[in-house]
Design brief:
With 218 residues, the protein is α+β, with helices and mostly antiparallel strands. The protein is 25% helix and 30% strand. The chain has six helices and 13 strands. β2 and β3 form a beta hairpin. The protein is globular. The chain starts with a strand and ends with a helix.
Length: 218
């Protein structure tokens, strides 16, 4: 399935708040791109920046997408007003969610090729960005997390009236499956093992899931 791109969003890292008197530096406060095109590289979109590369960015987390299909739930059920980049995403998307696309699925965006690598794990910076301390927990409990892409092929990509063209399905576990496998204590061992053994899964997610499997069933 093709995905519509409602907005392309980038930011340079800056202080977004403070914790215990120390500034919190992040690139989460993204704004829509006004140019007609961007260039997508192996480590992200030109002009975008991550502050802490131990948990954000890198080849497996080069581009973050979030489905606007979740906006009605956030606004109606959780009273969180939504707009492009509310969740710090590079691509505000429409047409699919975590239950309908899989780890390893590939999409073409202009000349760039993207592959889904892992779900997004929420952190405290999302709470600061949204001014809602409960948002990371709500994202975890609902699995409305969005997903990261790795860049398989670099290239220029359009911003206006753009879309991600689906070019291949992996047949692997869905993004939702991968999220539940790691974060839900009730997840079956079979699901956890299947997700862990998915070749296209990001290494950091695989290692965290392997540790969970060893802890619970090792």
């Amino acid at each position: 399935m093709n995905l519509g791109i409602l907005s392309v969003n980038i930011a340079r890292a800056r202080a977004i708040g403070a914790v215990h008197g120390e500034p919190v530096i992040s690139g989460i406060d993204k704004k829509p791109v006004s140019d007609g095109a961007v260039f997508v590289r192996s480590l992200g979109i030109d002009g975008d920046q991550q502050a802490d590369l131990t948990v954000h960015g890198g080849a497996d987390k080069a581009v973050y997408g979030y489905p606007a299909d979740h906006w009605p739930w956030w606004e109606r059920e959780k009273k969180l007003s939504c707009r492009p980049a509310t969740f710090g995403e590079n691509l505000t998307l429409e047409g699919a969610d975590e239950t309908t696309i899989a780890i390893g699925d590939r999409f073409r965006w202009g000349d760039a090729v993207l592959e889904i690598s892992q779900p997004r794990a929420p952190c405290y910076k999302l709470a600061i960005h949204t001014a809602r301390p409960d948002v990371p927990q709500l994202m975890t409990h609902s699995a409305r997390c969005g997903w990261y892409f790795r860049v398989i092929g670099e290239g220029g990509a359009p911003v206006d009236n753009a879309k991600l063209v689906h070019i291949s399905s992996s047949g692997g576990p869905t993004v939702s499956d991968a999220f539940v496998a790691l974060f839900d204590r009730r997840a079956a061992m079979e699901l956890c093992v299947r997700v862990r053994d998915t070749a296209q899964l990001a290494d950091s997610w695989r290692h965290a899931l392997a540790a969970k499997i060893d802890r619970l069933w090792g």
